[in-house]
Amino acid sequence: MDISLSDEQQLIADSAATFLAEASAMPAVRAASESGHGIDRALWRGIAELGWCGVHLPEAVGGLGLGMVELVLLQEQLGRRLSCVPFFDSVALAASVLRELPESAATRDWLPRLADGQTIAALALPTEKDATAQAIATEDGWLLSGEWPLVGSAGVADLLLLPALAASGEALLFAVPADMVGVQVRPLETLDATRGTAAVRAGALRLLASACVGQGLAVSLALERSRCLAAIALAAEQVGVAQQCLDLTLAYAAQRSQFDRPIASFQAVKHRCAQMLVMLEAARSAVYGAACMADTTPDAATLLFYAAQARVAASEAAQFCAQEAIQLHGGVGFTWEFDPHLYFRRAQAASQRLGPLSWWLEQVAAQLFNAPEDAP
């Protein structure tokens, strides 16, 4: 598999890096993260104008018609700048699941709004904690009740995608306006203030039949595939975090002096920075490889394997590079004025999104143990 970038893809990466270096500079990130709502509206408008919100969506719904590789390149730069926008939740996660569902009037209605960035969506991926969400069929629609305790970007979303179970046990997915009467969205205080999370609750919410965007096996398959695609996108973000931690550390080590010498000249510091680079490049290769594989539309088992590899490698790289950045900054690495602690928070919080690393490792282990003896 050739994971080298084409000229067009390299141009996307370079232009995204240039744009975000100015539009998502750290003063803007700090201001947005301390504002309480955790979103930089001006940056989101700029991203929408550039067409990023529809990067992997079909041209028929207003997207750019590109693929996971291009989405990954954008996610990497957004992670590098800790950009306070709901790009991951709305584009990489919510838009992906709508794209994976069979075409319907609902998907034709919502996808163009997500593609142009005018609508922000948040998806509550089903977990054991919110398995009690139930939907009862009525004469003209559904009666939805349940709680979804951790929904990324729900506090700034216009549209909520809420999974539930019918009385028969069939999987359902509902598109619910966030400002609908009967929907309660409670923002949560989390470790990473640059990304908002909220708890969502619905009590006996009356919905029209059209609010159900999918049901049955199609929903289950779309959610499983979207989880893997989102894991690859989240891994790309973690690669961006690791890259910036290395860049910050190299810059600081070059100007910080001890014993009349820059600490970058000390062998111990060089070795630790080299280890950061090794983990970063290994993770980047895993992420790019997973994105290339995803664009070939592989079977579910293959996609899960590559997504898990990218997810684990990138999360470990981000956590390692963030902690090393703090340590190599010395005493100031722990202070609010310096940036490493913000990247450490993002690395730690992101490691728990879409399930902890142990869950992904267990899925791969199950694949390997259950594979036939003559399988390659």
Characterise this structure:
- The chain has helices spanning 7-23, 26-33, 41-49, 68-80, 87-100, 105-115, 217-255, 267-294, 300-328, 340-350, 357-370, and strands spanning 121-123, 134-137, 141-152, 159-166, 171-177, 183-188, 197-208, 212-215, 257-258, 261-262.
- The protein is an alpha+beta fold and 376 residues long.
- It folds into 3 domains: 7-119, Butyryl-Coa Dehydrogenase, subunit A, domain 1; 122-215, Beta Barrel (Butyryl-CoA Dehydrogenase, subunit A, domain 2), CATH 2.40.110.10; 218-370, Up-down Bundle (Butyryl-CoA Dehydrogenase, subunit A, domain 3), CATH 1.20.140.10.
- Helix 5 packs antiparallel against helix 6 (105-115) and helix 5 runs antiparallel to helix 7.
- It is globular, with a radius of gyration of 21 Å.
- The protein starts with 6 loop residues before the first helix and ends in a 6-residue tail after the last helix.
- The mean pLDDT is 93.
Topology:
Elements lengths: L6 H17 L2 H8 L7 H9 L18 H13 L6 H14 L4 H11 L5 E3 L10 E4 L3 E12 L6 E8 L4 E7 L5 E6 L8 E12 L3 E4 L1 H39 L1 E2 L2 E2 L4 H28 L5 H29 L11 H11 L6 H14 L6
Parallel strand pairs: 1-4, 2-4
Antiparallel strand pairs: 2-3, 3-7, 4-5, 5-8, 6-7, 9-10
Helix pairs in contact: 1-4, 4-7, 5-6, 5-7, 7-8, 7-9, 7-10, 8-9, 9-10, 9-11
